[in-house]
Amino acid sequence: MQIRMRDGALLHVRQWGNGHPVLVLSGLGMQSSVWWPFLTPFLTPLRANRRYRFILPDARGVGGSADLHFGMSDVFEQHWQDAEDTVKELGLKEFSLIGYSLGASVALHGFSRTGWPGVCRYLHIDQSPSILNRSDWSYGLLGNRQEALFKAFERTESQIADMMQYPTLADLPVSVRHSVLADWQKISQQFFHSPQAARILALARRWPTLLKQGFPMYRIEDMYAYMHSYRHAHDYRSSLAACRVPVTVLAGMRSLLYHPKGQQWMADTLVKGRYERMEGAGHLMALERPVAFCRALQRFLTADL
After folding, report:
1. What is the pLDDT of residues 57-66, one digit of tens each?
2. Which of 54, 150, 267, 268 is most deeply packed, by most CB within 10 A?
3. Residues 6 or more apart from 89 whose CB is under 8 A from it?
4. What is the DSSP letter of 60?
5. CA 150, 132, 300, 65: dihedral to nearest 10 degrees?
6. CA nearest to 304, candidates 86, 121, 119, 156
7. Could you report the per-residue pLDDT of 179-188, keeping only the tens digit for each?
8. Which residues contact 28 (CB under 8 A, 6 or more apart)?
């Protein structure tokens, strides 16, 4: 279905099942359909002892919302406004909330802005309460490797800042496109240890149409907005104490993106926080340990409030 946002954009939102509403906010570049194999076990009362209605927006630039553009430079604010509008348009009065990676930052953004009226419980999956490292915080994105990553982001931003007239990476002048892709190939290898992404980026230097299938920031404006927003990300730590709903913090113990200690700190700071370790899994825990991930979802969904 499509839901109209406050700026007139029509956001694509999937709904599965009937029962208690559960709003699911996905990670960067992640289509909401990816959740299907992990949520289908909870669409029948036999497994979960109650019925659920899962509500999964496709974020702007992704999946069914691929043609939607950002209306502002702060992607966290934009995604939160879209989530808030989704809740309002669907008339949700009491619902559970799940946020993964970027979606978890969007959830924290909502708690810091309004306290998320209507949320009765929240599952926070592998994300730091402050993506950006600070003088008193070293558990942001990539920890002590963050400075080098953000310098790479800054170089790419400078390359594409005057290229907004080109809709996508594939449309860039060849020399600029090759330079940007070479930088991102290095970023994928050095910082995210993703040989698959690096191979796609290498091939895309010759066949740029591959980028649309394998790169979450295909549009120039999206790439710029995400890199800029991550380099100037919000710090949600001070707002955690005001959160009064039960929060489960699920951390991948092998996560290369966000150190588990930062997530342990978050759980300890929350009034009703609970820390859960996903052993043997990194940031992509649903793919690395799918059965354990589904069990963690079941514990969250069926826990007493």
Report:
1. 999 999 999 9
2. 54
3. 3, 4
4. T
5. -50
6. 121
7. 888 888 778 7
8. 101, 102, 216, 226
Q: How many alpha carbons lie under 13 Å from residue 154 in its C-beta half-sphere? A: 8
Helix (H) or strand (E) holding 55: strand 52-57
What letters, b where the CB count within 10 A reaches 16 and e where it falls short, cover 240-263?
A: beebebbbbbbbbeebbbbbbebb
Q: Interior CA angle at 23 toward 18 and 24, to 5°?
A: 115
Do 279 and 253 contact (CB within 8 A), yes or no?
Answer: yes
Three-state DSSP class for 246? coil
User: By three-state DSSP, how is residue 215 classified?
Assistant: coil
Q: Is the pLDDT of residue 48 over 70?
A: no
Per DSSP, helices labelled H in the chain are: 36-39, 45-48, 75-90, 102-113, 146-160, 174-190, 195-204, 211-214, 220-231, 260-269, 285-288, 290-302
Length of the chain measured in residues: 305
Residue 122, Cα to own-chain centre: how many angstroms?
A: 15
For the chain, domain boundaries: 2-137+234-302, 143-231
Helix, strand, coil shares of the chain as percentages rounded to 5? 50, 15, 35
DSSP state at residue 257: S
Tokens representing 103 are 């979606």
Calculate Rg over the CA atoms of the chain.
Answer: 19
What are 240-282's pLDDT values in tens digits?
999 999 999 999 999 999 999 999 999 999 999 999 999 999 9
Contact 53, 15 (CB under 8 A): yes
As a whole number of angstroms, the distance between CA 192 and CA 44 comes to 37
Pick the CATH number of 2-137+234-302 from 3.40.50.1820, 3.40.50.620, 3.30.70.20, 3.20.10.10: 3.40.50.1820
| C-alpha span between 274 and 249 (Å, rounded) | 6
